Amino acid sequence: MVSQVRGVQLARLLGQWHALPGRRRSPDYAALAGAVRGLLADGRLPLGVRLPAERDLAEALRISRTTVTAAYRELRDSGHLASRRGAGSWTMLPGTHRVAPNGLWIPLDDRDMLDLGVAALAAPPELLPAARAAAEDLPRYLSGAGYHPIGIIELREAVAQRYTERGLPTSPDQIMVTNGTQHALDLVLRLALAPGGGVLVESPSYPNALAALAARRARITTYGLAADADGWDADLLLGTLRQVRPRVGYLIPDFQNPTGHLMPAELRERVVATAHAVGTDLVIDESFVDLPLDGTDLPPPTASFDRHSRVVSIGGMSKPFWGGLRIGWIRTSAPQVQRLAAARVGVDMSSPVLDQLVAVHLLDVAPAIVAARRAQLAVQRDALLGALAARLPEWRVTVPRGGVTLWAELDGPISSALARAAEEVGVRLAPGPRFGLDGTLERFLRLPFTLPATDLVEAVGRIAAVRYDLDRAGQPRWREPAVIA
Ligand SMILES: Cc1ncc(COP(=O)(O)O)c(C=O)c1O
């Protein structure tokens, strides 16, 4: 099924397309085509959407139809549009691009691209030995069918032990192994949320979690996080919970993505108590819990304040170890694990045994790996902060005490325009609006510090160069309301 975008809708998305950076002396049709490509590149305009008829868009933009015809022709030539006579034109992906894990496009030949769209580290050196050791272990499993819907016992034991060590006694039958944290969230939502069910999320939040909620047709209410060090405003969060009484609350208390905030123990306790009082189940995403920096002490796990099985914790191997493993987990009550396993057989049956064995071997040497990751991340974060202070001093950043990202407050509502301009100079960015629901957050940009320090410094240099070009191209301005007299 192809959805359609009307002329006025596309015009709204395009905003100040004629004043976008990089415009310089290009003709209107090329600027329009470039702006549509920009919307596709940052995910604001989906693939497979039917664009408005040329006349409809020309009217909405108050430009000539010839300009729209020429822009559509250019988009067809660059492989961003497919047309059939009588049926219209759809957005598409050029054959020379692939889709990155973050949902953004990457041209196949862009080896020099510095990708700040993905907040994840390359694999640690311990991965290959772990994979070899896992292959040695595999024969123990080969006499069975290989389906383990809740995961192999060795891995569930190892994960349960890590929770217990964090002060949250956990038995292996409270753990279900998944194909990553994202999969864990999707499975939990399948069980906890009927279509149209209410969910409270932080704003900004992790874009793929928002996508999972949209896929379950959740009715989403957002709760705004402050950009400064405090992050959560307790009264506002608890007040919103009491007022909205959502079925589910999805929170990232441990070095929140994208802001890097850490929720204090006292608020964890109050959120859990309030959630219980209003009948909300909490899904607590602990993706970054292993990555405190600067010796920051971690508050107790959110689930340790739970007396009523209201809190489901999800986490995984991706951030401290490697995203390519696709191993995550859910911690909940043992009966709930059984219900999740029953739901799972209709989805993907179980996780690969070999990958689970690799995870077991990595967890065996976790302290050494995680210590090296933290040291590496602290150096990279400081290099990024130093480059920002030197090249973009008007941006405001709060130093994150953990995790892998910082959330920069920019000097204007330029995040999407900046991401488009940065792409031209070989830096991929995830602009602020990707972390919200309604196209706001244009004053913010998430910057991960998962690339080597030299790459981060180089990327900031390139971003700073195009930042100042934006000014020369004329900053997008908010339209003044038209007065009708
Ligand atoms: C908060 C959060 N949850 C979940 C995920 C997805 O993790 P996984 O690779 O384990 O599916 C990420 C990845 O960036 C994340 O930041």
From TrEMBL:
Residues 26-94 form the HTH gntR-type domain. SMART domains: HTH_GNTR. One of its GO terms (molecular function) is DNA-binding transcription factor activity. CDD domains: AAT_like (cd00609), WHTH_GntR (cd07377). Keywords: DNA-binding, Pyridoxal phosphate, Transcription, Transcription regulation. The keyword Cell membrane does not apply. In the C-terminal section; belongs to the class-I pyridoxal-phosphate-dependent aminotransferase family. This is GntR family transcriptional regulator. It comes from Micromonospora sediminimaris.
